[in-house]
Write a structure and sequence with these properties.
OB fold (Dihydrolipoamide Acetyltransferase, E2P), six-stranded mixed sheet, five-stranded mixed sheet
Amino acid sequence: MSDGSTNLRSLLNRPYQLLLAMEQRARAAIANREGDQGKKREWIGVGFRLGKERFVTDRADVKEVLSVPEQLTRVPGAKSWLRGIANVRGQLVTIVDLKAFLGGGISMSDRQARVLVSSSREVPTGILVDEVVGFERFDAADHKAEVSKPAIRCEGYLDGSYRRGADLWLYFRIPKLLADETFLDAADRSEAPTR
């Protein structure tokens, strides 16, 4: 019974042996599958671009990717990087220009620009980026803790990088961004009325 060739039908009248044989086959199948995955574990992220730099973020942190909404309601007294509020299928989503927030200049709302809608329920945010390049697949072993200094100041939101050939993809963590007090405080105090 220990070999995988046992005919399960022959064990129909012996339920305990049938269960043992089924368990052995299940364990063998799991070991096979884990062995294959152990050889090469794949990590899949959403690739995007800010200026000339490439970033990748965890696909679980992105609910969807949208074109830049045509209808944005400006928020009075908000910092310039907070572009406005958009109605996305009945849900109000704050649209933030990531490049402007990071001090890299204003993103142009051209044909390539996209909005990454975060999967966070607490902070429903659309993150405007210069371009979304799609799903990027990496061998999980290619993740490195070190990052080269990016041109745009975003070190506090990075969690290493992935390299594919000559291309370096900085691993941008959206949850770190959404938890940052500087990001959450979008009020422009320079425009506050004086008394």
